[in-house]
Amino acid sequence: MPDFRWRLAAVATALLLAGCGGGARNADDTAGVRRYGALAFAPCTLSGGAGASIAAQCTTLSVPENPAAPQGRAIALRIAWLPATDAAGAAPDPVFFLTGGPGQAATESWPAVDPAFAEVRKRRHVILVDQRGTGGSHPLICRDAQGRSAVADEGAAGSDEIAGFARRCAGALDADPRHYTTTDAVADLERVRAALGAETVDLVGASYGTRVAQQYAMRHPRRVRAMVLDGLVPNELALGAEHARNLDASLALQFAKCRELPACGDRFGDTRARLRALMRRLREAPVEVAYRDPGTGEERRGTLGADTVAGLTRLFAYAPEAASLLPLVLSEADQGRYAALMALSRLVQDQLGEQIAHGMQLSVLCAEDADLLTPDPAEADTVLGTALVDLLRAQCAVWPRGRRPADFHRPLRSDAPALLLSGEFDPVTPPRYGEQVLAGLPNGRHLVLRGRGHGSFAVGCVPKLLGRFLETADAKALDASCLDSVGYVPPFTGFNGWEP
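That's the Pimeloyl-ACP methyl ester carboxylesterase sequence above. Prediction below.
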């Protein structure tokens, strides 16, 4: 396989509680210590991307690394508690926030979305558990030759090199990677719930977190009061199996919007055709590019290949504000002006790489999905091609593999009230996935946000709807007409913005 396919896959893969009366028991044991159920918390600060930070209460809970050997080795789960702002009126059911990846840490993801949950947090405590293998919960991180968090060495050109990287990473970990699966994480969440002393919880899952939420609801149905699922991963889905076709379908919708606007269509023409031509040319002859590092401002040089273009295209497709730049930067690159594309690609890779614990990601995907993945020749002409499937199959052939329950991929059937959110242009979990999950949720409702990509918590009036739903646990009674005002993000027609 050509070198660019492996490098693209590396980028793409990197590239989601017995009752407590009115809520947690907040009595101080000692100065600065607060108790919630059986757990003692101390003040801490949670930090996330873009400099966001938030005050919280933190603790750890010791759990067995191998659930089948409770007397064996233990690992510590990092747990953060965000107390309800109306402590006197706090509800007894806390919110468990389940983040994406797989490989992201809840305590690191939360600061960026906290403003969207202001209504929710008035009467509900929020609990963040770094899933085992991520963040502060015994992270499983693979590092390349430069010491960067990565899923493969840059320049790896074939399955032997890719597999070798995975084998070396697994051997270097102070962990048994077989016990870092979604099923293990669900058992951890139940231990946390019991330790907090809450009879029921509300599950809020984003992207891969929706898989965790569904698996918890399957195993512990009486413990779930309500669910919010944003960017849904159906239980039936093998992660990675449809990424290539989903991206191309999303790009088709987004580029069609460009053609509908004269200022965009007249200037950029057929953006998809331009993207194909650019990737074909760079696949045959990568180019050296001088550009300004977006983080430091320093002048740098780097090699631009088809993998860089495809990786940036995929990651920008997640958010319409970023995708609005694609017609412009692809047009610039097609005309030989590559600096903007190269700088944006470096910015995305630098920000994303350290957010994913790739070892944990492999533990999840190799146990739960890899044996169900088969390269589809029909995807060879897509932006991603079969690179992601090929990468996972090569690495999972050597990665220590855990087990999944026989019913792991069975569709969820639950009477729990559920609010499902999808973005019209989502390139990884399209709206049809939401409809698929909704079929098993008689008390669920699916809202599709016009013009949006992957992740909807902070869009328009969604924060208000989140608060109302978790207060009433009745999705069907929500007045969601406020979402009618959510519109499309216009494409940039120049580096100063879009046409008025």
